Amino acid sequence: MYNLNFRHLYYFYLVAREGNIVNAAKLLHVTPQTVSGQLTTFESQIGCQLFDRINKRLYLNSKGKAVFEHASEIFHRGNLLTDIIRNDHEASQQSFTIGITDAIPKVLAYDFFANTMREYPHIKFQFREGSFDTLLSELAVNHIDLVIADRGIAPGTQVSANSYFLGESHLAFFSSDPDIAKGAGFPACLDNRNLLLPGIKSGITLGLTTWFESQHIFPHVVAEFDDSALLKLFGSEGFGVFCAPSAIAEHVEQQYQVIKCGEVPEIKERFYALTGKSQAQHGIVKAVLNEARALLV
Question: Using an 8 Å Cβ cutoff, are 258 and 175 in contact?
Fold first, then answer.
């Protein structure tokens, strides 16, 4: 450890994070030549190259990715320590960062975390929303502590993380039209109806398409949404029938003033929690896992 120069490590960390030497130099208020020299010195000291240099561009190699992951955790912890020192308080407020993928219903995310937030009033919870790949990348470098997603980590993925299956919920259909299921009944009432679908990134889109065909139902797809909250908002305004997990049916009906017109047990939406290896035994992680599994089948 005494041979590791943390200033050189920080220069490397910024170059890797920013993607090039020029941007790192701007943040450090030094010249690109200075950053390049420090980076070369650091690689010489540790005895290995951290970047592949192709056409004057830098690409992290396998060793560089491993060093960057640890450097990210070091400087993240350093920032937390700085906050504690600045606040001059032993019990300085800690933070816990949660990533929610676009496909997760916001009401369901609320149900997962509400009780846990009440149990940990001294923790500052930070919620971020994004795509699965983006949040997984943030998790890999310890910028996020826990991710809630509609899929787990694929086998062979080069990410040091844990993936937990939380449970599943079959789908229910909702409409702002209170008379939609009268006469034809469900699911026949969906035929030729305007329909709002989750985006192609959702794990249930293919299952929905197959199910419609098996039922000889041919709705008119008006729009597709990556954001589940936006989908429900348009559905509440009468733009079309939409689906959501049956586990949150009561919330959806109350919040969006719609009615449930039927359920589809054949199609199930699955939910997962992803954590970094260092967070596996965290009390908040355990509490959220228990809460989520109690809510889902």
Answer: yes
Distance of alpha carbon 263 from alpha carbon 189, whole angstroms: 12
Rounded Cα distance, 51 and 63, in Å? 8
Q: Which helix (H) or strand (E) element contains residue 196?
A: strand 194-198
pLDDT band at 149 (very low <50, low <70, confident <90, very high): very high
From 169, 165, 127, 168, select the one nearest 289 (Cα to Cα): 165
User: Rounded distance, CA 189 to CA 295, Å?
Assistant: 29
Digit-coded pLDDT (tens) for 153-206:
877 777 778 889 999 999 999 999 988 867 678 999 999 999 999 887 677 888
Cα–Cα distance for residue pair 147/101, rounded to 1 Å: 8
Count of Cβ atoms closer than 10 Å to residue 205 Cβ: 15
For residue 273, what are its two tokens? Answer: 């929690």
Q: Cα–Cα distances in Å, from 95 out to 14, 249, 274, 276, 278? A: 23, 32, 18, 15, 15
**Ramachandran category for residue 220: left, alpha or beta (phi over 0 → left; psi -120 to 50 → alpha):** beta
The tokens for 35 are 């950053």
CA distance 51 to 163: 29
Residue whose entry in the numeric block shows the structure tokens 């504690």 = 84
Hey, what amino acid is at 51?
F
pLDDT in tens, 49-84: 999 888 778 888 888 888 888 888 788 777 767 766
Q: Nearest-CA neighbor of 74 among 274, 284, 278, 280?
A: 278
Q: At what angle do helices 6-18 and 32-46 cross, to 10 degrees?
A: 120
Give backbone dihedrals phi and psi of 296, rounded to 5 degrees, phi first: -100, 160
* Number of other CB atoms surrounding residue 197 within 10 Å: 21
